[in-house]
Amino acid sequence: MTIQESIKNGATISPGGNSKDNKTGSWRQGQRPKWNKEKCLNCGVCFHFCPEEAILFKDGKMVGIDYTYCKGCGICAHECPRKAIEMVKED
């Protein structure tokens, strides 16, 4: 078997946002992001960094967080330039 033949049998890399097929919200381990609309610039940084497309935008503005898919990783809170998202204890 050539290297090329063995590579095609390797791992699959799924596209970003593949959680739409797998509701990953139940994976959260005690923390969830909380969005402060007043601090938000609607810059979209959180949207672009979220690995599960759980940040919701409509007409160029953030409208919320879809907790069905949010894993609670905290990347959105870490990357937000205005700290409009903070990690809080899960209700």
How would you characterize this protein structure?
- The structure is a single chain.
- The protein contains 3 helices and 4 strands, in the order αβαββαβ.
- It is α+β, with helices and mostly antiparallel strands and 91 residues long.
- The protein has a single domain, classed as Alpha-Beta Plaits (2-Layer Sandwich).
- The strands form 2 sheets. Strands 1-4 form a two-stranded antiparallel sheet. A two-stranded antiparallel sheet has the order 2-3.
- Strand 2 and strand 3 (61-65) form a beta hairpin.
- It is globular, with a radius of gyration of 16 Å.
- It starts with a helix and ends with a strand.
Q: What's the CATH class label?
A: Alpha Beta
Q: Could you give the order of strands across the largest sheet?
A: 1-4
Characterize the biggest β-sheet: 2 strands, antiparallel
Q: Give the tally of structural domains.
A: 1
The computed structural class is: alpha+beta
Q: What series of H and E elements makes up the topology? A: HEHEEHE
Helix content: 10-25%
Low-confidence sequence ranges: none
CATH architecture group name? 2-Layer Sandwich
Proportion of residues in β-strands: 15-25%
Radius of gyration based on Cα positions = 16 Å
Question: Mean pLDDT, as a whole number?
Answer: 87
- What best-fitting shape do the alpha-carbon axes yield? globular
According to CATH, the fold-level topology is Alpha-Beta Plaits
Extended strand count = 4
Report the span from N to C terminus.
Answer: 54 Å
How many helical stretches? Answer: 3
What oligomeric state do these chains adopt?
A: single chain
Pfam family, one: Fer4_21
Cofactor: [4Fe-4S] cluster
Region (Disordered): 1-33
Domain 4Fe-4S ferredoxin-type: 31-60, 61-90
